[in-house]
Give the backbone structure.
Amino acid sequence: MTTIAPDAPVTGASRTYPPRSAVVSWIFFDWAAQPYFTLITTFVFAPYFATSIAPDPATGQSLWGFAMAAAGMAIALLSPVLGAIADASGRRKPWIAAFGAVLVVSSCALWIGKPGDLSIIPPLLIAVALASVGAEFATVFNNAMMPTLVPPDRIGRLSGTGWATGYIGGIVSLIFVLGFLAANPETGRTLLGFTPLFGLDPVTHQGERAAGPLTGLWFIIFVTPMFLFTPDYPAKRPVRQALYEGLLDLKQSLKDLPQQRSLAAFLLANMIYTDGLVSLFAFGGIYAAGTFGWHTIQIGTFGIILAIAGTFGAWLGGKLDDFLGPKRVIAGSMLILLLAVAAILLVDKDSVLFVKVTPPVPGGPLFSAAAERAYIVLGCLIGAAGGPLQAASRTLLIRLAPKDRIAQYFGLFALTGRVTSFVGPLLIGVVTAATASQKAGMAVLVAFFTTGFALLMRVKE
């Protein structure tokens, strides 16, 4: 296996970077991991869980929020520790392989989610939480490989291209599920008019349930090039020694963090706005299912449109990142998200921004109602802004963090992105449960983006 020197300089004409094949293979990690976020947590399985497994959509949204909150707490507590250990041991790929295995096994277990079976809810939510842990931890160590792949002035483009590629992977996987696996229970036909492959039963929603095993298989296939062609850091010390030294380094980094004001302000801002963004993506499909009565076909089509917007947004954001700097890209993305979320709260099935409109007709043409089209437009703004926000965040961290502790700081990055990540889903779950209103639950997101933007203004690149 090819390795690279972790202490090699990241600037200067003498620095040698790996070949293009190594960079492309690294980019395909985003393609490999994205179906979990697209199919499971956003557009297929989460809405299916809320509308067909849980007793009612509001209860489903609440239960899903609690599961994501539990996963977020585990990720928050362990990410910086694991990142520090990885920096001390040197290797990244073994960690990606281990947590990728958790993602694969847990995703495949979602097949058991039969409609209306309340007894299956607890193990199903455990599987979803474990899959989230696997996906997020694998991403931490994959992100830590970035500084050795391209020169510093191309980091933004690399990050943006990775996110854009991930969005495309999400689009392809979503089209495959909607076009060939998941069918309308009434017609027995998929979005493309086919009967489901492999004899999947529309009545028991086997197409939606198959999204779990597909996510696991997809990850195995498309993460393989990264393991084969992208160089890893060399092993520096045994795991036991790395554990001891890594924890000491982490303790020192946390002690020094208050003196690194820009880095500390950025990590705090990331903690707030990432919580809002993750909650928004996690509940966007569920919110649409409850508000408009959308099912898998409508939500999946909506997801495809959003992913296309996200692809262009991430690609353009990567170029703007190198040209304007990541802080400006993050700030602009957050303003767009804030305005879009506020507008979504003013869209109901029979009104758009306080203007009465004709509500959707059951069984009518796809997205024929004005409120549905308004929701799609606002969703596209969210998709186009979400990609640059996340891509520019990881490049800003690379600019601010010490190069010899990059995995540790990506662990802290994941910590701040997760340490309060249970708060967003938890607040949505609690407010939704208390008010029996999905709109009231989603309203809490405005505060997250407003606060995150204010904190970002204190960061100096």
